[in-house]
Amino acid sequence: MGVRVELGKSLGSVESVKAVSDIYSPLSGEVTEINQLLADAPEKLNQDPHGEAWLVKIHLSAPAEVQNLMSAAEYQTYIGAEK
User: Fold this and answer.
1) What pLDDT digit, counting tens, does each position of 32-79 carry?
2) Higher pLDDT residue, 65 or 83?
3) Are 60 and 29 in contact (CB under 8 A)?
4) What pTM was estimated for this model as a whole?
């Protein structure tokens, strides 16, 4: 904790059987908490991505960046277009 992250830069990675994928920070700021639940139960990322499977909590250094985030509906449209 206390690590500074920047919008669009890698803040960590997720490893699966087939690959390792970077996780990119949606906002800039300082990591204040890491979800330790995922260390023991990484499958939660697929099971409950909008609930228990949060990754980190970030104290924002540029709150205006929030305006550029997608809504849940916009994201669903985006991932549908990616298939």
Assistant:
1) 999 999 888 888 988 998 899 999 999 999 999 999 999 989 988 998
2) 65
3) yes
4) 0.80
CB 19 within 8 A of CB 48: no
Contact 57, 2 (CB under 8 A): no
| 52-59 contacts at long range (C-beta below 8 A, 24 or more positions apart) | 55/11, 55/12, 55/23, 56/5, 56/11, 56/12, 56/31, 56/32, 57/31, 57/32, 57/33, 58/5, 58/25, 58/27, 58/29, 58/30, 58/31, 58/32, 59/29, 59/30, 59/32
Tokens for 38, please give them. Answer: 């995922």
Q: Which amino acid is at 66?
A: V
What pLDDT is recorded for position 6? 97
